[in-house]
Structure to design on (121 residues):
């Protein structure tokens, strides 16, 4: 019996996830509402963390815990409106990189499941 291919493998693994995450952060940095959250953040480090997280939710080998997510965001005044805007931008980035709608919704859904760990305001 054939094993079902993960989204991570389906879309090309770390190299593609890395491009998606880099594109997302370029858009986030250009956004007037979300960009300031990254003013004092080491860009390479956050891209590395996010690449691991997105890889994980796509069924890849990297893993990420909810405790880590909460710890990384606990000091930031992130509102539901900020989170909603991120979800829209992530959806657009995934679609722009050829991720099928159903798969994009699954990735965005994985982010949405962690809203309570990120939203603090």
């Amino acid at each position: 019996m054939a094993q079902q291919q993960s989204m991570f493998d389906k879309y090309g693994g770390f190299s593609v996830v890395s491009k998606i995450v880099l594109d997302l952060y370029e858009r986030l940095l250009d956004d007037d509402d979300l960009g300031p959250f990254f003013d004092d953040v080491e860009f390479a480090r956050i891209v590395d963390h996010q690449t691991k997280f997105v890889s994980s939710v796509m069924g890849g080998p990297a893993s990420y815990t909810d405790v880590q997510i909460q710890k990384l965001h606990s000091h930031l005044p992130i509102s539901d409106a900020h989170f909603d805007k991120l979800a829209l931008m992530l959806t657009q980035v995934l679609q722009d990189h050829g991720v099928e709608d159903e798969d994009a919704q699954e990735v965005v859904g994985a982010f949405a499941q962690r809203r309570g760990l990120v939203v603090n305001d």
Q: What stands out?
A: The two ends are 48 Å apart (CA to CA). DSSP finds seven helices and no strands in the chain. The longest helix spans residues 14-30. The helical segments are 7-10, 14-30, 43-57, 66-73, 80-96, 101-112, 115-118.
